[in-house]
């Protein structure tokens, strides 16, 4: 039998333990609520870009490069949509920019490296070199953008250095002639890609204008048509 003093001490310890669990649960719920608050609508759109970027990578690995390219363009679309939505709703934030940069790795850099590796690379060493340059310089470029943000020249925003989109397009433009008529050599493609990668951390001003977005949209439409033509046997 417990004495009265021992029972009181035990009840106090039990009450303290229960209070501790309650406080811990409150902290966890608060953290979840804060995280839900931090992740805005634009971030969910960014996560959609991640989904299609990952699907694109899997299609490349499965030997479906043309469908992989088309799905990759869907990731591009969501990546552009999230920025537009954030500006439209006034929900731009440093956190959102970091989320966007994180997802850009899987929407642009990883698919580009895989596309070269699986369709253009003449051997493993070439693929290692090209993939390393794409991922390293691209990653540094995204880190720099998180740190410095956009520049401004005559009220026109610009990126510091070429973007990961530019590098991805270079890989695509190497894939198409090689896939359609076989005139583009994997070695030459690798040298070109390696040469342009350092431009992502250069002082080149890649201006963010309506005209540049229109040119990108036209190019995406053309490449999509070529990919569909190759996949369906028209080319």
Structure report:
78% of the residues lie in helices and 5% in strands. The protein has 235 residues and is mainly alpha-helical. It folds into 2 domains: 38 residues; 193 residues, Four Helix Bundle (Hemerythrin (Met), subunit A) (Up-down Bundle). Helix 3 packs antiparallel against helix 8, helix 5 packs parallel to helix 7 and helix 6 packs parallel to helix 8. The radius of gyration is 25 Å and the shape is globular. The N and C termini lie far apart (90 Å). About 3% of the residues have low confidence.
Layout of SSEs?
Elements: H1 4-38, H2 41-61, H3 65-89, H4 94-119, H5 124-148, E1 151-153, E2 156-160, H6 164-180, H7 186-196, E3 205-207, H8 210-232
Antiparallel strand pairs: 1-2, 2-3
Protein name: Phosphatidylserine synthase
Organism: Haloquadratum walsbyi J07HQW1
GO molecular function, one term: phosphotransferase activity, for other substituted phosphate groups
List keywords for this structure.
single chain, mainly alpha, 2 domains, 235 residues, globular, Four Helix Bundle (Hemerythrin (Met), subunit A)
Percent helix among the residues? Answer: over 70%
How are the strands ordered across the major sheet? 1-2-3
**Cα radius of gyration in angstroms:** 25 Å
Low-pLDDT residue spans:
29-36
Q: Structurally, how many domains make up the residues?
A: 2
Mean pLDDT: 83
Protein structure class: mainly alpha
Shape: globular
CATH topology term of the largest domain: Four Helix Bundle (Hemerythrin (Met), subunit A)
Task: Count up the helices.
Answer: 8
- Termini gap: 90 Å
Strand content: under 5%
CATH architecture call of the largest domain: Up-down Bundle
CATH class of the largest domain: Mainly Alpha
Strand count, sense and closure of the main sheet? 3 strands, antiparallel
Transmembrane segments: 35-61, 124-144, 156-176, 182-201, 213-230
GO molecular function, one term: phosphotransferase activity, for other substituted phosphate groups
Organism: Haloquadratum walsbyi J07HQW1
Family: Belongs to the CDP-alcohol phosphatidyltransferase class-I family.
